[in-house]
Amino acid sequence: MTSVDSRPDAPSTPPIPSARRWWILAALSIAQLMVVLDSTIVNIALPVAQQDLGFDDGGRQWVITAYSLAFGSLLLIGGRVNDLFGRKNSFVIGLIGFAGASALGGWAPTFEVLVGARALQGVFAALLAPAALSLLTVTFAGSRDRGKAFGIFGAVAGAGAAVGLLLGGVLTEYLSWRWCLYVNVVFAGVALVGALLLFPRHVKEEHAKGLDWLGAAVVTAGLFLLVYGFSHSETNGWDDPLTIGFLAAGVALLALFVMVQRSVAHPLLPLRVLLDRVRAASYLIMLISAVGLFGVSLFLTFYLQQSLGFSPVVTGVAFLPMTVAIALAASITGSVLTTRVSPRITATAGMLLGAAGMASLTLIGTDSSYVSHVLPGLILVGLGLGLIFANGMGFATIGVDNADAGVASATVNTAQQIGGAIGIALLSSVSAAAATSFATESGPSADLAEAAAIAGFQSAFWWAAGFFLVGALVAGVLYENRIPRSEPGADPVLVH
Prior knowledge:
Elements: H1 18-37, H2 46-53, H3 57-85, H4 87-107, H5 111-139, H6 146-174, H7 179-198, E1 201-202, H8 213-236, H9 241-263, H10 271-275, H11 277-307, H12 312-318, H13 320-335, H14 343-361, H15 370-395, H16 405-441, H17 448-478, E2 494-495
Antiparallel strand pairs: 1-2
Helix pairs in contact: 1-5, 1-6, 1-7, 3-4, 3-5, 3-8, 3-16, 4-5, 4-7, 5-16, 6-12, 6-13, 6-15, 8-9, 8-16, 11-14, 11-15, 11-16, 11-17, 13-15, 14-15, 14-17, 16-17
GO molecular function: transmembrane transporter activity
Organism: Rhodococcus triatomae
Domain Major facilitator superfamily (MFS) profile: 24-483
């Protein structure tokens, strides 16, 4: 069977009915929600899991880091596997594997099994996440509803972390911390039924070639060392020789990866994917905004529970306004603004809203109230992230050839994961340093520990606001003052 002519007027493959497209979007969104919320759903459950399994404080970060390490370092390979062996096949295998790893983690009798299960989740997430985005890309290729679909998908991707906090609190408080992992079996089961019943089969592109094993090894090692270096800095500091060594080695390997991609016949990540201004801007704003998203979800969780005395469930509910704001802004942006306003305007506005929200959160104190000091900042950040994610997800794959859709999708997910890892590590270090400095400069008092912690939170929010401002500059410079309308070169061959 031959591939479809890439000319705009070439005959297309049998189109997917409009109603079926929306059901496909629903299945893809469930899978994306599962992958994103697993970055945060175990956070609230960690104290209970630690008591149950008896691991020390140093082990807590590995329950989170094992997932992000495997996920972030394997995403590009997962994206290319999608292109080589079929997106539907990758999606189905990713769902089944993710569900199995989650069940293993929920059952885990020891700390080692739990960490291993989390790493396995990351492996299958690296296959699943780019499959979901590339399937969305080809499902709505050429459709007038493309912007609306990506707006919905972006809302799910942006709200997933906050949903994870809420769901984690509810499951931990009313069932067991283990259900924070078991619940993925339910999500995966629903998405799997949708995939088997609805998804057309993606036939390998004629232009898809073999896997670049050298590039795969170099980029996997580079991303692993980069993420590990940032994670290592949380406990050992930025001046620790191992932290510096891991980060330097990671950067060097990523630079080598670029050189490899320029010289091999069939690169893992063709540089043409990165050299388009619209796509490059989308990857960068997703990376930068992830710093802010993970920053607010982490430090505000501590503040709400430690300073305001919120329970895990109430803490999760407190994030709902941000979740709703993300969903509304992303949906409106995707369905209305992306076809009428250039991404330079909407993405820059989103970054500025995020910066304003973070600046607002720096006003928190020991006697602050949720309604007057927390809620306004959450809404502003949510609105900003909604604008950012609708643009970042929507334009990350625009204009790519079908043979590159999977790796382009993987690149935007990689940017988000690396941004989150940088955000957690960098802002944690900033917060700890600010808290220590406050305690040193202040005289002894009964409330010193709480005041120092809040000083640390305020410093982290200021830094996050700075990242959003940098993002506004990136969006304003890299995005052009026009509405990108190019679609992938050709629809894939679909067999119903």
